[in-house]
C-alpha cells in the first residue's frame, strides 16, 4: 500500500466555457474554472452567508477532454475526480509563479455531467425538448459507463 494519497473530488459549476490548447506533439489539454460554494447562517447576526471557491482544472485525458469540449458550457454542473498538482511557470515579465490545480489524467480521472449535455435535444416525436435532467458518467477513455456494450 502506498504511503500517501493524492485525490480530489469536487462538485461545482463552470465559471466559463472550457478552454482547449493543443501542443506540437499532438496532445491537448482542456482547462476549466469550477466554482464550489457553501452557505451557512451566521450565529451572531442570523444572516445567510456564503463563500465561493474557484478551482483551476486541467484535463489531460484525451477522452475526457473531448467530452468536456463537446458538452460543457458556462454554468454546467459537474462532478470531477482527479489529483492536486502544483506547477511552476514564468510570466511575461520573467517572474516565476506557481499554480495549484486539479489534474484529470490517467484511468483514475472521472468526469460526470450532472445536468445533461448542453444542446442535448430530442426530436419533435414525443421528446422533451432538452428538458431532461440526466447524469452522464464516463470512464477514463471517454466512453459512457451507462452503455451496455461488452468489451
TrEMBL record:
Residues 115-151 are annotated as: Disordered. Keywords: DNA recombination, DNA-binding. It holds the Pfam family SSB. CDD domains: SSB_OBF (cd04496). HAMAP family: SSB. Homotetramer. This is Single-stranded DNA-binding protein. It comes from Rhizorhabdus wittichii (strain DSM 6014 / CCUG 31198 / JCM 15750 / NBRC 105917 / EY 4224 / RW1) (Sphingomonas wittichii).
